[in-house]
Automatic annotation (TrEMBL):
Name of the protein: Propionyl-CoA synthetase
InterPro entries per the UniProt record, alphabetical: ACAS_N (IPR032387), AMP-bd_C (IPR025110), AMP-bd_C_sf (IPR045851), AMP-binding_CS (IPR020845), AMP-dep_synth/lig_dom (IPR000873), ANL_N_sf (IPR042099)
Superkingdom of the source species: Bacteria
Coiled-coil stretches noted in the UniProt entry, renumbered to this chain: none
Organism in which the protein naturally occurs: Nonomuraea cavernae
Residues annotated as domain AMP-binding enzyme C-terminal: 506-584
GO molecular function: propionate-CoA ligase activity
Domain AMP-dependent synthetase/ligase residues, every copy: 60-441
Length: 618
């Protein structure tokens, strides 16, 4: 049997056989004899991820196939790299890193905009068995500093600037400020100079990327243990300190390679475009590693869905490069829909090559689903996953069998994921009943084995709540047909324009303001971005301040400390926060009010009028 049910069942009943078969899609230096031991996949195998993404395709005679298309409406550039050309660039960049003292197991921080050198940098690290940590460009200097101090990179790779439609973002001053703030000192910074804003280099510390790479000798691939880390990707948790999600080499390569054909139905040579950013997990998995492991052509798009220059830019890219699979966040589609509700821009382009639109990163609302599917006339597929998993947990696996779509659901758990809905006592909820979405261990290959330098936080965050299960942090339910419905986070994480942010972290920043006595930040439903953060603040006694001025100071503070990506634009001064008599802030009830759900003040509430004040402010 090859239908979805049969494949899924086999993955759960015989995980070792299932993933041993999938592992044959990868070229190993030492093939796995053991498939799973103590939750770690392929513990005795050795490989190099870069070899699998590039060299093996060139060796198989596909060196002339296009590996990467850089399409940058913000600079007016379109440039293609064949597999042979990309390999050459990566090998020389790896040579430079090696000359700068980067060895196997060393960390390298990459703080770059959406340029080919960002992809080259990631693969160059993988080539040496070094561990990259990419930091998203929309984060502030302090966030970069926190990551530099935690990852302790030997080298930082960066660029002089990124380009947002409304402004050039000078990265180098942000990097300089981060290095001022950080205690850790990397040996070198290698800076890609972009003509839009060339940067001053610090003598003795900074190197010019182009000339340094030009002079470097190419480096070969260094095989590492399958369980060795490939990268660290910091993501928002419930507190100010981000979590360093670790990805291993072997499980990751196997899972991503398998997902390209089985989840996305993509074949070698096809054009696959994930319209995301290399700073997020979608960028790691489906701009860089997944498509290249599978021998596809990947598109690196430096632009936005709207405004670069118009709401037809996604359709232009699809038509111009023959994109077969497009992956983006629902927010991007909502942004296009808002500016071009009748889809006139889409009709200007030949979209006949496009076979699937995959959406993830936040809940796909049925309106957006229907709009996109009516416009494009192709399957629009919601799928659900997270930084920790690295690849989809629930999806309509069109490469196995396309199942009927139910709007509002990312379809069924993907093979390898034994998804359970648990109530607060850890009992399984019957179909239709909402609970915590958990995954029975073992997690399939590709999922995080730990948090970088923080095994205790890994156990505490994910494994201790329900023994034998991984806690996803999302709430939801399964229906009678086994379809999953993800209803939203059950912790302090919010999703703003498909970007994952921590309200707890914003609260820490706001609480540091000298006039703030206490505060609560919640995510409020927003038509375009899905959610937006809103802060409620109580001022210290005697702080006689103009609320509008306080709001201005607090929004500036969050922008400065966390970054523009937080999109923190509303801070409301209130007389008190709704709390229980024991002093716990009623964030859940506040969220219910914000989302327009029915709410009832708990019997333990200290002062019911505080809730009315929140409702009035919203
Ligand atoms: N570097 C520097 N700044 C960045 C940035 C980056 N890489 N990405 C975003 N920012 C800035 C923006 O310029 C904006 O700054 P502003 O406050 O000065 O306007 C701020 O961060 C907020 O960004 P965003 O919420 O993305 O707003 P936007 O107006 O730039 O774009 C959308 C709105 C909907 C077009 C955009 O959010 C989008 O394309 N979303 C799709 C999400 C996505 O791809 N998610 C990845 C997961 S799949
Ligand atoms: P990130 O780690 O940035 O990928 O964010 C992961 C979180 O985004 C998940 O835990 C969910 O809360 C949310 N998310 C991602 N995809 C979906 C989806 N398809 N439907 C609902 N929520 C989603």
């Amino acid at each position: 049997m090859s239908g979805f049910d049969a494949v899924y069942r086999r993955s759960i009943d015989e995980p070792e056989r299932f993933w041993a078969e999938a592992a044959t899609g990868i070229d190993w230096e030492v093939a796995p004899a053991t498939v799973l031991r103590d939750g770690r996949w392929f513990p005795d195998a050795r490989l190099n991820t870069c070899f699998n993404a590039l060299d093996r395709h060139v060796e198989a005679g596909h060196g002339d196939r296009t590996a990467l298309i850089y399409d940058s409406p913000v600079t007016g550039t379109v440039r293609a790299y064949t597999y042979a050309e990309l390999l050459d660039e990566v090998a020389r960049t790896a040579g430079l890193l090696r000359d700068l003292g980067v060895g196997t197991g060393d960390t390298v921080v990459i703080y770059m905009p959406m340029v080919p050198e960002a992809v080259i940098a990631m693969l160059a690290c993988a080539r040496l068995g070094a561990v990259h940590s990419v930091v998203f460009g929309g984060f502030a200097a302090s966030e970069l500093a926190v990551r530099i101090d935690h990852a302790r990179p030997v080298v930082v790779l960066s660029a002089s600037c990124g380009i947002e439609p409304s402004r050039v973002v000078a990265y180098k001053p942000l990097l300089d400020a981060a290095l001022e703030e950080a205690a850790h000192r990397p040996g070198r910074c290698v800076i890609l100079q972009r003509p839009q804003a060339p940067a001053a280099l610090v003598e003795g510390r900074d190197l010019d990327w182009a000339s340094a790479v030009r002079d470097a000798e190419p480096a070969g691939c260094v095989a590492v243990a399958a369980t060795d880390p490939l990268y660290i990707l910091y993501t928002s948790g419930t507190t100010g300190a981000p979590k360093g999600v670790v990805r291993d080499n072997g499980g990751h390569a196997v899972a991503l390679h398998w997902s390209m054909s089985h989840v996305y139905g993509a074949a070698p040579g096809e054009v696959f475009w994930a319209a995301s950013d290399v700073g997020w997990v979608v960028g790691h998995s489906y701009i860089v590693y997944g498509p290249l492991l599978a021998g596809c052509t990947t598109v690196l798009y430096e632009g936005k869905p709207v405004g670069t220059p118009d709401p037809g830019s996604f359709w232009r890219v699809v038509a111009m490069h023959g994109v077969r699979t497009l992956f983006t966040a629902p927010t991007a589609i909502r942004a296009i829909k808002k500016e071009d509700p009748s889809g006139n821009f889409a009709r200007k382009w030949d979209l006949s090559m496009l076979r699937y639109l995959f959406l993830a990163g936040e809940r796909l609302d049925p309106d957006t689903y229907h709009w996109a599917s009516d416009l494009l006339g192709i399957p629009v597929i919601d799928h659900w996953w997270q930084t920790e998993s690295g690849w989809p947990i629930a999806a309509n696996c069109v490469g196995i069998e396309a199942l009927p779509i139910k709007p509002g659901s990312p379809t069924r758990p993907v093979p390898g994921y034994d998804v359970r809905i648990l109530d607060s006592s850890g009992q399984e909820c019957p179909p239709g009943t909402e609970g915590a979405v958990a995954i029975r261990l073992p997690l399939p290959p590709g999922n995080l084995p730990t948090l970088f330098r923080d095994e205790a936080r890994f156990t505490e965050s994910y494994l201790s709540r329900f023994p034998g299960h991984y806690l996803t942090g999302d709430g939801g339910y399964l229906d009678d047909d086994g379809y999953l419905y993800v209803m939203g986070r059950i912790d302090d994480v919010i999703n703003v324009a498909g970007h994952r942010l921590s309200t707890g972290q914003m609260e820490e920043v706001i609480a540091a303001h000298p006039d703030v006595a206490e505060c609560a930040v919640i995510g409020v439903a927003d038509e375009l971005r899905g959610q937006l953060p809103v802060g409620f603040v109580v001022l210290k006694a005697g702080a006689d301040r103009d609320p509008a001025e306080v709001e201005r100071e607090l929004t500036a503070l969050v922008r400065e400390r966390i970054g523009p990506v937080a999109a923190f634009r509303r801070a409301v001064v209130v007389g008190r926060l709704p709390k229980t008599r024991s002093g716990k802030i009623l964030r859940g009830t506040m969220r219910d009010i914000a989302d327009g759900r029915d709410y009832r003040a708990p019997s333990t509430i200290e002062d019911p009028a505080a809730l009315t004040e929140i409702a009035d402010a919203l």
